[in-house]
Specification:
The protein contains 13 helices and 25 strands. By secondary structure, the chain is of the alpha+beta class.
């Protein structure tokens, strides 16, 4: 078991439970004043307090490396509650919130990996010894300048267009993936050249499309500057993407530093640094073409749209004099691409009974499809591709770009999403919404018998070989339902009437013969039957002509 957790950036985390009042806490910590640290109140964890009445505190050494301690002040009335760290979410400080509280002990020390219990007096001595050890260890490292931080501070200061790169930017080592291998190096080797940093991730389709284009010509420009993709993704993910996409570009991987110099709310996120070491532009991926990159590497001034920072806590285009927390009803619908703004969607935190959703620079078809999924989910159903129907509509209309920012009081989420569909209908001139139709289909039912539908648990697995076998483990039943609809199996729409809501394990040999398929399904306690059912659908169609026109 580890006595503390180190997050890879020089920060150490401990979990402490202290069943005394706040005054006793301050007096006890104050006894350690020979060691230079201060006690500061810390904001509550974003997941909420672990226990009712708990507070969070931070002890910070007067040094560039610091120790975070989370002190949980516990009301004794909750002393018998048990919290299992394996079931708790990971918080944004890298620790897992979990506390086991023995009934007859007044002090529990918890670190990643397990529990230890001490008497109060023994624990206070342990804390003082640990802080003493950490302080002296840091003191020995004083002659070595901290890398990746701004001088005189314990955090990286974000950079904006027009800022000069600090010396720490050049000295920090980064992990590069190059030619199928990894190597650590600084960016100092590129000092004096123009640099373009392109932040990406494996799940970001626009990022991969843009990287694919740059990959075809970047090597021709390398004499005048350098193009560097940057991701926080780990080696295995990057290897998979590079192999699938056929990329040859070197990329910074597992990044934790460059992202702090250039924080972002969305990707793609492109940082243009001139040969003088000044941040010239921060854009999305659109200016990344051969002409712009070639001119920039040669020292030319570019006229490109700067990426607009999106404050997720403030409605788009809301006057800065308005307190965003006072807004309970707000509607903004913009047609056409908003230059400099990312393609983004997010949900704000709002009071109960008020719902919020923001979509920026998204195609109309993608907006309708996302809202359809939300409406099906509100009905407790899963939407399949066959449930989303488009009439004879010009594709150009469905590819038009829209931005929506909605804050609205509604009775339910379903009412809210229906309202968003109505707004899109008004803006686009189309008629979209939930409907129903009668279909010849297959019905999935549970068989009466000894076979129990369910899963053995464990890690989720989805292996589909359409020329052989299908193996699913610990997956939702609708995932299996969608596979059964494939033309290489039933080729028909399937209605789930099992009433089962949990996960399942499933093993099948691929066959289009329904009788053979049912023989295999019977081993799972399932059966498919021909039937006619009314099914829910989402349709997009042209509005009916006005009789008076």
């Amino acid at each position: 078991m580890k006595d503390f957790y180190e997050d890879g950036r020089g920060q150490f985390f401990l979990k402490l439970l202290f069943s005394k009042d706040k005054g006793a806490l301050y007096r006890s910590v104050g006894a350690a004043r020979p060691f230079p640290f201060v006690l500061e109140q810390k904001e509550p964890n974003t997941h909420g307090p672990i226990l009712p009445g708990s507070d969070y505190f931070k002890i910070r050494l007067h040094n560039k490396k610091f120790l975070l301690l989370s002190w949980q002040l516990l009301k004794m009335s909750h002393a018998n509650r048990v919290y299992d760290p394996r079931k708790e979410k990971q918080n944004n400080r890298g620790c897992i919130d979990g506390i086991h509280i023995p009934k007859d002990l007044n002090f529990t020390f918890w670190a990643l990996g397990g529990f230890r219990t001490y008497s109060l007096q023994a624990m206070m001595y342990s804390i003082l010894l640990f802080v003493s050890f950490l302080f002296h260890s840091v003191a020995l490292a004083q002659s070595r300048q901290d890398i990746g931080t701004v001088a005189g501070a314990n955090r990286i200061v974000p950079l904006r267009a027009g800022d000069k790169l600090p010396e720490e930017f050049w000295k920090q080592e980064y992990l590069f993936y190059r030619n199928g291998d990894t190597v650590r190096q600084t960016l100092d080797v590129y000092r004096g050249k123009a640099i373009i940093l392109d932040f990406w991730a494996q799940w970001c389709t626009p990022c991969l499309v843009s990287l694919g284009k740059v990959n075809t010509f970047a090597h021709q420009l390398s004499g005048n500057g350098v193009f560097i993709p940057v991701t926080s993704d780990k080696l295995t993910s990057v290897q998979s993407v590079w192999k699938k996409q056929g990329f040859t570009l070197p990329s910074v991987i597992g990044d934790t530093i460059l992202g702090q110099f250039f924080p972002r709310a969305s990707i793609p996120h492109v940082v243009w640094i001139d040969a003088e070491g000044t941040v010239a532009h921060i854009t999305n991926q659109q200016p990344l073409d051969e002409s712009n990159m070639s001119d920039f590497f040669k020292g030319a001034e570019l006229e490109v749209a700067q990426k607009t920072a999106v404050d997720k806590n403030r409605p788009l285009l809301l006057d800065t004099r308005v307190d965003p927390s006072s807004v309970e009803n707000y509607q903004l619908v913009l047609k056409g691409k908003q230059e400099g703004m990312p393609m983004l969607k997010f949900t704000r935190s709002t009071p109960q009974g008020v719902f919020s959703k923001t979509y920026i620079n998204r195609p109309l078809l993608l907006l309708y499809k996302g809202l359809a999924y939300d409406l099906f989910y509100g009905l407790g159903q899963t939407m399949f591709e066959k449930d989303f129907q488009i009439a004879d509509i010009d594709p150009a209309i469905l590819n038009e770009i829209y931005t929506l920012d909605i804050i609205s009081p509604s009775n339910t989420e379903a009412t809210f999403y229906s309202h968003l569909v109505d707004l899109l209908n008004t803006a686009s001139g189309l008629e979209a919404g939930m409907d129903s139709e009668q279909r010849q289909c297959l019905v999935l039912k549970k068989l009466n018998g000894d076979v129990v539908l369910g899963t053995a648990g464990g890690e989720r697995l989805r292996q589909v070989d359409w020329n052989g076998h299908i193996d699913l483990r610990n997956l939702p039943l609708p995932s299996f339902q969608g596979i059964l609809m494939d033309d290489r199996l039933t080729g028909k729409y399937i209605v789930n009437e099992t009433g089962y809501k949990g996960n399942i394990d499933a093993q099948l040999t691929v066959t289009s013969d329904l009788a053979e398929l049912n023989r295999q399904l019977a081993k799972m306690g399932l059966q498919l039957e021909e039937a006619i059912r009314d099914v829910t659908i989402f349709t997009i169609k042209k509005p009916k002509p006005n009789e008076h026109e």
